[in-house]
Design a protein that fits this description.
Layout lengths: L15 H54 L20 E3 L5 E6 L10 E8 L2 E6 L3 E4 L6 E16 L15 E15 L11 E8 L4 E3 L5
Antiparallel strand pairs: 1-2, 2-3, 3-4, 4-5, 6-7, 7-8, 7-9
């Protein structure tokens, strides 16, 4: 008779409790991984929205910079300064959040200068075409502009020494060399919920290419 110790022992499987415990641990790992993936996707969306906001602000500032660079194009030398300004082609609003620019929009001769401008109204940057025709430049559904600031840096050069006759003080011709700093700040609107809500800023230095000559020598 064979000994019972020589018979192969029966293999024991997992109990129901062990299977349930392993399943619970596996599901916990899956939930944690999905939560981490969701967080990473939301963070990527926020970063993308912030980058888009910064890019849009920079684009708007560059548009303003190009217009300012053309200020005074085909404005005749000796043209009187704009009311409330020492400049014949650029006038800043008293609040500092708007300005008007005069220049000829086309290089063709005989074309009179047109007036363009920018201003901040109710969180939207508006651009003027011609006499008082304003339209939105920024998108109100994606950003709310909180700051639009123009800071001029003007160098005034007296030209009285080039006059053959003496001129009265304050009536002598002068030349203007101008540079304007444009500062924009904005936050994403509620319609762009993936943004972080932090303010973004764009800063551009615009150099006016056409130096202005204001006034003239006595006849």
């Amino acid at each position: 008779m064979a000994s019972t110790s020589s018979l192969p022992q029966q293999r024991r499987g997992f109990t129901l409790v062990e299977l349930m415990a392993g399943l619970a641990i596996g599901l916990s790992v899956v939930v944690l991984a999905l939560g981490l993936l969701t967080f990473q996707l939301q963070d990527a969306h926020r970063q993308l929205a912030d980058l888009r906001l910064t890019h849009d602000l920079q684009t708007i500032a560059e548009v303003m910079s190009r217009d300012l660079a053309r200020a005074g194009h085909r404005v005749p030398a000796g043209t009187a300064a704009v009311a409330g300004s020492a400049d014949p082609a650029i006038a800043l609003a008293e609040s500092g959040d708007g300005l008007s620019i005069d220049y000829a929009a086309t290089p063709a001769s005989g074309i009179a200068p047109s007036r363009f401008g920018y201003r901040l109204r109710s969180g939207v940057i508006e651009m003027a075409f011609g006499a008082g025709h304003w339209q939105a430049l920024s998108d109100a559904t994606s950003m709310r502009v909180t700051r639009l600031e123009f800071t001029p840096d003007i160098r005034r050069i007296d030209l009285r020494e080039f006059c053959s006759r003496p001129c009265d003080a304050g009536a002598c011709p002068y030349q203007l060399q101008r540079q304007v700093r444009i500062r924009l700040q904005a936050v994403a609107t509620d319609q762009a919920p993936t943004a972080s809500g932090a303010a973004r800023e764009a800063l551009v230095e615009a150099r006016v290419r056409n130096d202005a000559v204001v006034g003239g020598c006595p006849g």
